[in-house]
Amino acid sequence: MANDTAVRVAPARFRIPSKLFPYLLSLPALLVCIGILIPFFTAVWFSLQRYRLSQPWNRGMNWGENYLNFLTDPSFWNTLQVSLVYAALTVGLELLLGLGIALLLQKRTRFNNFISIMLLLPLMTAPALAALMFKLMTNPNFGILSYFAQVLGFENMRWGSDPSTALLTVVLVDIWVYTPFIMILLLAGLRSLPTQPFEAAALDGVPRLQQFWRITLPMLLPYILTASLFRLLDSIQQFDIIYAMTQGGPGDRLMVFQVEAYLNFFQSTNVGRSAALLLILWAITFFLSNLFIKNWLRLRERARGEA
Amino acid sequence: MHHYSPLERVLRGVALTAIVIFFMFPIFWIVLMSLQTNETILRSPPSMVFEPTFSNYAAIIAGRLDSNVASMGIEFMNNLMNSIILSVGSVTVALILGVPAAYAFARHKFRGSEDIAFTLLSFRFAPPLLVLLPLTMYFQQIGLADTYLGLIWVYQLICLPLILWIVRGYFEDIPQDIEHAYRIAGHSWFATFRKIALPLAGPGIAAAALLAFIFAWNNFIFALVLASADKQPVTVGALAFVTASGIQYGQIAAAVVLSITPTLALALYAQRYLVEGLSLGAVKG
Q1: How far apart are alpha carbons A203 and A198 in whole angstroms?
Q2: Rounded CA gap, A277 and B133, in Å?
Q3: A207: cis peptide before it, omega within 30°?
Q4: Which listed site, A305, B76, B112, B148, has its alpha carbon 20 to 30 Å from B242?
Q5: Which residue in B130, B142, B276 has the most chain A C-beta atoms within 10 A of its own C-beta, making it the best mutation to test that interface?
């Protein structure tokens, strides 16, 4: 192998066995990685215990009881439902909007590039601070969005503090922050598509709407899948926006997994239940992330092949 | 190339205008708010005509908040400093740990290398609280609780996978022949890494570092769980500020503007790197 000759020719001062060498290079990163695996296994262990910080005398293994209790626990099913609805709504709407914007900006003009750069700004805003901005904008006393709602005839629209509009409010913030992410990925995808199929279709007089359904969308599908899976993974674990906006309220209207687990741990100090909740969330994300990584690697291979 | 009919052109214009307004308006509005006193903020109906004042910023920078009711100290500049320390520190550590590892993963297919790389990547997707909650207990035991060092270590959860995966892609793109030629000319492995591989992967490293910085800066949950008031970055600090100051809306807006300016400025300054990094090397745009 060329690699071996190269090693032999090189001056031998400190000769580290070449088999060990790559391990040595990645060792520091590995150590950090191991340091993170320990708390993970601790969490698994906690999830199998009856463990409340307020009742240290009562601590003990109860094996699967925390998980079994979920079956008959309405607040668990509420958490699962709210998390799934939030993830589906945000990713679905962001995908539609992101695809629409990417199609509008497809042509490489100076103006389009300028707009796509401006649209990066929401994505670079911390989600917790974005929620804070929208909280100010929806303040009943002076919020500009409350004012617009009033002008449009929605008197007393209370946004995040009303159970009927709370979900809509946090979804709106999520869309504001994350649509540009999907837009950027799809725009890069659109611009990398080969032009020949479109030229051929135009010569044959295929209507543009049909070009979109028959050519653009199928060719863009790998990008759409990668972008949505990535967003889905993040969205099902959303914490920042919801916690900063309403802390899961009003009532339990927005108690998604991580907010519920956080409050379980710090407010009701129920460590066992909190850990079990997080492990169920982890199982969901583990499944999704395997799908995502497979998809992403395929896309990388393709991009590499074409490059 | 296709030409648009006049009707289409109008529709596209309307759609683009609506999009730009939707995504730009909140930033624009919060900047306007930060330049007003509470009296003009609370006017109804809201109006864009007012005499701009920098008193909100002055109050935050001076660290004193005076109203006609009471006077209170604010720690916001401290939060800003913490954000800088945590973000710069985490990215530096992640680069030192991540770039050599990325090189090892790209150049040597060693036993278990794929598994390790995937494990690191999967950290990016695991629920952060799963690790954070047990970690609060460990940190108390080993004395890392409420230290910059402890926080920077945890921030590697975000920064390290990002650097590792983006930079690895760039190293893989460098033809091995160039490195071999340089080594055959008698240079050591380290010289090859430093003189050939690092400069060629430079843009990728810059993109990864930039993204890691922004994600570290924007992080909320790590510091919320692990940091007490004097170590909190702006994301957590701004929220605490809202609770503390209550109705000082102008100052809250000014604090938000100060908190988001660094990342927005960086994004505008280095947008080309950013777009490249964001697509995670998946699509070469």
Answers
A1: 9
A2: 12
A3: no
A4: B148
A5: B130
Q: Does A272 fall in a domain?
A: yes
B70-B72-B77 Cα angle (round to 5): 150
Partners of residue A60 on adjacent β-strands: A50
Q: Averaged over B65-73, what is the pLDDT?
A: 62
The CATH number linked to A185 is 1.10.3720.10
CA distances to A136, A142, B46, B126 from A147, rounded to whole Å, are: 12, 7, 8, 40
Looking at domain B76-278, which CATH architecture does it have?
Orthogonal Bundle (1.10)
**Domain of A263?**
74-306
Predicted confidence (pLDDT) per residue in A22-40, tens digit: 777 778 777 877 777 888 8
Do A165 and A158 form a contact (C-beta atoms < 8 A)? Answer: yes
Q: What token pair was written down for B27?
A: 């930033």
Q: The pTM is what?
A: 0.89
Question: Contact at 8 Å (CB) between A289 and B122?
Answer: yes
Test mutation, A124, A152, A208, A215, chain B, max B CBs within 10 A: A124
Query: Number of folded domains in chain A?
Result: 1
B7 burial class (0-12, 13-18, 19+ CB within 10 angstroms)? exposed
List, for residues B159-181, the tens digit of each pLDDT value.
Answer: 888 888 888 888 888 888 888 88
Q: Is A142 part of a structural domain of the chain?
A: yes
Which residue is it, tokens 């800088």?
B84
Distance (Å, whole) CA B279 – CA A230: 11
What H or E segment, with its residue span, contains residue A144? Answer: helix A144-151
ipTM attached to this prediction: 0.89
Q: Report how far Cα B259 is from the mean position of its chain's Cα atoms.
A: 11
Closest approach of B247 to chain A, Cα-based (Å): 11
Tell whether omega for the bond before A11 is within 30 degrees of 0, i.e. cis.
no
Instruction: Say how far apart CA A84 and CA A157 lie, in whole Å.
Output: 25
CB B223 within 8 A of CB B231: yes
CA pair distance B264, A156, nearest whole angstrom? 34
User: Which residue ranges in chain A fall short of pLDDT 70?
Assistant: 1-19, 303-307
Does B106 touch chain A if contact means CB atoms closer than 8 Å?
no
Alpha-carbon gap, residue A25 to B23, rounded angstroms: 43
